[in-house]
Amino acid sequence: MKKAIMYGGGNIGRGFIGKVFADSGYEVVFLDIMQSLIDEMNRRGEYNVRIVSNAETVDTTVKPVRAVNSSTEQAIDEIVTCDIMATAVGVNILPKIAPVIAKGVVARMEKRGKPLDIILCENQLEADILMRGWIYECLTDEQKAWADKNLGLIEASIGRMVPPLTPEMRVQDPLLICVEPYCELPVDRDAFKGEIPELVGLIPYSPFEFYIKRKLFLHNGGHAVCAYLGNLKGYDYIWEAIGDPEIYEAAKAAMNVSAQALIRKFGEGVRENVENNVVDLLFRFQNRALKDTVSRVGADPVRKLRRNDRIVGAALFAMEQGIDPAPVIKGIVAGLKFDREGDPTAPEIQKALKEQGIDYVIEKYMGLAKEEPLFGMIKAAYEA
Predict the structure, then answer these.
(1) What is the end-to-end Cα distance of the chain in Å, rounded?
(2) By C-alpha distance, which of 135, 69, 142 is closest to 105?
(3) Which of 67, 127, 151, 340 could bridge 120 with an S-S bond, Cβ 3.0-4.6 Å?
(4) Following DSSP, what letter does each residue of 319-345 receive, concatenated?
């Protein structure tokens, strides 16, 4: 049986990519450091994924699966013998797992010599470049030369929404994951070093920059605008926020800005793809059964308001294509007012606004210089 490694047993790892591998006929080996998850997965050899929508709920079983502690030598052995691999750990964790992958690459070079393709399921622009840099820090020149020809680091666009479970649901089944029905997996066709695997929902595409920008600026950007405007009106759930006609139209307008920028950048050939995606996302945001919260989608505004992230990045991208970013700026201003209790970084921005002012916040947290047109546009909208 073919073997796939899923590095990261969290929401995306179990709820999306691990299930894709299993549905495609692979044994799935999870690499993780959470021993309770590892033990439970090995005890059962399977786990449950609940697909939820407003129309129905469908329970599915993912198997065969097992798990290995990523800090052990067995993890290296698994990398040597796998047929395909993926990561879903979060961009902040990628540097921490790079040394383990590097050891696996070296062992694979020495013992097997077969190319290794790793699908990077991280919402990060140029995740492949970043990851290769971290891995190469652990390699010799000879090993880097081998990896140049045999290590494929494939960017992916992760569109499936997987909200966290309630504490009660976790107690009932510690491996359960709830997901929406959407399960497309666009990947960078040109990045594979071996044969492109036949995976359920896989969409190899070139140039992949289109899908990366579509996901970040249209999907993540529209989601964030919905959350930040929903926060201002006191909504707790995304479906409540998008159900508000004013927020619906504002989110749609912001998404259409990114849609038009994508069409102008990549040509009329993507128009149907992009416009259908806007319609699909606005429908998916209304999924009550997901119980997706404003707090989760808007969480960590320090990260989400960076210039290369979902909404400031979308505004800059629109301006590069000659499109007025005003609807996106409305979401940026709402993001500056995001102050949900318990958020890890929202208090930092609120304190900076109060003590240093809007100029400081735009420059420090958004990375915009005062001479950039977007700086003044955001400041004017905020002060208005």
Answers:
(1) 62
(2) 135
(3) 127
(4) HHTT---HHHHHHHHHHHT---TT-SS
pLDDT tens digits along 309-336: 999 999 999 999 999 999 999 999 999 9
List, for residues 328-359, the tens digit of each pLDDT value.
999 999 999 999 999 999 999 999 999 999 99
Q: Report CA-CA distances (Å) from 160 to 198, 222, 226, 231, 244.
A: 19, 14, 17, 23, 23
Query: What does the block give as tokens for 208?
Result: 């992949």
Q: Contact, 358 vs 370, CB < 8 A?
A: no
pTM: 0.86
Question: Considering only CA atoms, which of 75, 177, 188, 181 is closest in space to residue 122?
Answer: 188
H or E element that contains 310: none
CA atoms within 13 A on the CB side of 184: 10
CA atoms within 13 A on the CB side of 12: 20
Check if the beta carbon of residue 4 is closer than 8 Å to that of residue 139.
no
pLDDT at site 130: 95
Indicate the pairing of strand 47-52 with strand 57-62: antiparallel
Residues 6+ apart with CB under 8 A from 151: 105, 115, 116, 118, 132, 135, 193
Task: Give the span between the Cα atoms of 80 and 88, in whole angstroms.
Answer: 19
